[in-house]
Every structure is written in C-alpha cells, then in structure tokens.
Design goal:
single chain, 184 residues, mainly alpha, Rna Polymerase Sigma Factor, Chain: A, Arc Repressor Mutant, subunit A, 0% strand
Length: 184
C-alpha cells in the first residue's frame, strides 16, 4: 500500500478534470456528471493508485477519458423545457465558442482528444505522451499538426460561401444579361 494520497488536494484536480470533460462534452451538466463520475471512481479505486506510474492528475484524466467515452455512448436526453438566455450580453462570446466547437467537431476523433487533453485538461506534451504511451516529440508534432488543421477549419468557416447566390446577386446578374447591346 502506498502512503501518498492522490486526492489529498482535490480542488485543482477537480478544475482540471472538469476542464477536460467540458472540452470534450461542452460546459454544463454533462461535463459535471463526467467529473463527478471520475472522482467517484477515483475514490472507489484509490488504493490502486501507484505514484510510480504517474501523477494523480494523469491517473484522474485516464479515468475521465473513460467516463467521457461512456457519456458519448449514452443516448442524448430530450430536454424537458426550453433553455433561457443568460443575463448580460454574451452573444459575441457565444458565437466564438460555437464556431470553435464546430471546428473542433470537424476534426478527427484523435485530434479532438489531443485538443481536449492539452487545452481542456491543461496537460503538457510530456504528460500526454505518458498517458498515451508514446514519445513526447510525437505528441508535440501531433499537436502542431492538429492545431494547423484546426486553424484551416476555422478559416474555412470564416470565409463566405461564394458559390451561394443571394437573391440580389441573381437579380443583378439577370438584369446584366438583358441589357441592350449584349450578345445573346
């Protein structure tokens, strides 16, 4: 039995696990449920924690990954009532978050997981490498490539779709075709 308690200082661990879950599931009750499930399992299996295999956060993120995957496997509940808007002007922030979330969802599952581990759980490349059982350099390269792909997706989202012809464009192009002196 090991004397080091992995849950001795839970506050920063809870924040990091929640951030990881929120990055994968979105802010709110689903991320809260995954975080709660993670700590419930951690308490249940606390004696199995081996500090020689990694830090408490690494151990908890491993548990959280399974909880998040299980949350995705469950069918989505039907909302009971419509959501109400939060007080204050949050439109611009909400739009940016939605655009980012949409862009992340367009990435492959492996890339989404890497983003959640790095930016959601705030793990270093070394910690991610240890968690996934690969070299740190491999994670650094994958992160760089993933962020490049994400940037490309975000740029494509920001570009107006030039193929879509608005009614004004349709009308002006038809009027130009009917001008006198234009060969048909």
């Amino acid at each position: 039995m090991f004397t080091r308690d992995p849950l001795a200082r839970p506050e920063p661990l809870i924040r990091r696990v929640y951030a990881y879950a929120a990055c994968r599931l979105g802010d709110g009750p689903d991320a809260e449920d995954a975080t709660s499930e993670t700590f419930e399992r951690a308490l249940r299996y606390q004696k199995s924690y081996d500090p020689r295999k990694g830090e408490p956060l690494d151990w908890l993120i491993g548990i959280a990954r399974r909880c998040v995957d299980e949350a995705f496997a469950r069918p989505a509940p039907v909302p009971a009532s419509p959501e109400t808007a939060a007080p204050g002007d949050l439109e611009e922030e909400a739009v940016r978050r939605a655009e980012l979330r949409t862009a992340v969802l367009r990435l492959e599952k492996r890339d989404r997981e890497l983003i959640a581990l790095r930016f959601g759980a705030d793990l270093t490349a070394r910690q991610i490498a240890e968690l996934l059982g690969v070299r740190t350099n491999t994670i650094e390269v994958r992160l760089h490539r993933t962020l490049t792909r994400l940037r490309t997706v975000l740029e494509r989202q920001a570009e107006p779709d030039v193929r879509v012809r608005t009614p004004a464009r349709v009308l002006s192009s038809e009027a130009a075709e009917r001008r006198p002196g234009r060969a048909a």
